[in-house]
Design brief:
By secondary structure, the chain is an alpha+beta fold. Helix content is 31%, strand content 24%. Strands 1, 4, 5, 6, 8, 9, 10, 11 and 12 form a 9-stranded mixed β-sheet that branches. A 6-stranded antiparallel β-sheet has the order 15-17-16-19-14-18, sandwiched between helices. The protein has a two-stranded antiparallel sheet with strand order 2-3.
């Protein structure tokens, strides 16, 4: 079972929450962040390279120093204020007609090391190192990670109680997504939430934030080793997460665009695809994949349906049955010569939130030559793969809305 605890969040006064709350550090480049950031924005803390002119590389020591200075300043000015007691929090996100409700809590670093916090993607050490530096220099988890857990009626009942009352924060972001936040401060409810997670929730699943999770676990281990008086109760043993029941979450498609045709003519591409797929030309109107193993391809101004033929994948292999695996093996590798999705500069990835119009736009502009859209992975597939100990191919899942940073911060001291 997982270990959790409440915490006294550092968070903004209600009057400035929309000025301070910001998108996660990794969904904006530095130029976009500089343009978006107002005076009180958390981006000055999570992407402090924007405070320099010209913008500095994000791993420059001056950038790390600025992050520390800004974090201290935001607290001194009262833009971030710590709660007087340890609480849990409920965080709701609304996208269209769908709302997902998560619990903001502290998870234990040992649960990651012991495999109770399950991952489905590999991490890159350079990105882990960068996030680890930010946690260490700030002595805080500035941004939460995004976890899923299997549905639990008891936890849902407590969430329902709080969302029936008045929220602490409520606003709509620049994308039209709604964000709402409640403080769970009744002692009996706090105790019950801890009890339910500890006794009834077998595992957390990393939905978004693999690098932040790995970095937090490394910081906890390092601080523990450096403390001769370590007793296990220290705040650095925990890190901040927002945890959603699996039934609330939907995975959005994560698509691919490729810069060239590997020296082949379009007619050759289509001919080679015919060995493994049933191909139907859909014309100039955007075509969305209709089911698993149905792909959309955009080439020379036309959309195609590519349906993988039986026998080209293994339904008994949790990784081999994934559409990202089928596309990588039968198209990207076999035809286009792309062997490593992590390192090949000829391929790029487009989150489905941008729409398939983004795929055709990038091909029509001449930047790319061919695009592929995939049917999204299901939460059931993700959880089953994580439970099996397998790792998904790169860029398989895209979750939306993204968690807003700045609604709660966990201090390690």
């Amino acid at each position: 079972m997982v270990r959790v605890k409440p915490f006294a969040a550092l968070r903004p006064p209600k009057s400035i929450v929309t000025e301070l709350a910001a998108p996660p550090y990794d969904v904006l480049d530095s130029v976009e962040a500089k343009e978006m950031a107002g005076e009180k924005s958390l981006l000055h803390i999570t992407k402090p390279e924007i405070d320099f002119d010209p913008i500095l590389p994000d791993h420059d020591q001056r950038v790390y120093d600025k992050a520390v200075a800004n974090f201290k300043e935001w607290q001194e000015k009262g833009w971030l204020v710590q709660d007087s007691k340890s609480c849990y929090y409920v965080y709701a996100q609304t996208m269209g007609e769908r709302t997902q409700y998560g619990i903001v809590l502290c998870a234990h670093t040992d649960d990651y090391a012991e495999g109770k916090i399950k991952k489905h993607e590999l991490t890159r050490k350079d990105k882990e190192d960068d996030r680890m530096i930010h946690v260490k220099i700030q002595r805080a988890n500035i941004e939460p990670v995004f976890f899923a857990y299997r549905d639990n009626e008891g936890i849902s009942a407590i969430v329902s109680k709080y969302i029936a009352g008045e929220s602490e924060y409520r606003f709509v972001d620049e994308h039209g997504f709604g964000h709402e936040f409640w403080v769970v401060d009744e002692d009996a409810d706090i105790e019950r939430i801890t009890e339910l997670f500890t006794n009834e929730v077998d595992a957390f699943y990393v939905a978004d934030g693999h690098h932040r999770t790995a970095a937090a676990a490394r910081v906890g281990a390092e601080l523990r080793a450096a403390n001769p008086n370590h007793n296990g109760s220290e705040e650095y043993n925990y890190f901040m997460a927002v945890c959603f029941p699996e039934s609330h979450l939907r995975i959005i498609d994560y698509n691919r665009v490729v810069k060239d045709l590997n020296g082949l003519a379009p007619t050759q591409i289509i001919g080679m695809l015919g060995e493994d797929f049933d191909i139907t030309c859909k014309g100039s109107e955007i075509y969305h994949p209709q089911e698993l193993h149905d792909f959309a391809m955009y080439l020379q101004g036309k959309w195609y349906s590519l349906k993988a033929r039986p026998g080209r994948y293994d339904d008994n292999d949790p990784i081999g049955v994934l559409d990202v695996t089928i596309l990588s093996r039968l198209v990207l590798d076999k035809i286009l010569g792309i062997k490593d999705l992590r390192t090949d500069k000829r391929i790029d990835f487009v989150g489905g939130i941008r729409g398939l119009e983004e795929l055709s736009r990038r091909v029509d502009s001449g930047e790319m030559q061919i695009a592929f859209a995939l049917y999204p992975v299901s939460m059931t597939q993700l959880l089953n793969i994580a439970d099996s100990g397998c790792i998904m191919p790169p860029k398989t899942t895209w979750f939306e809305p993204k968690l807003r940073s700045g609604l709660a911060i966990h201090k390690l001291d």
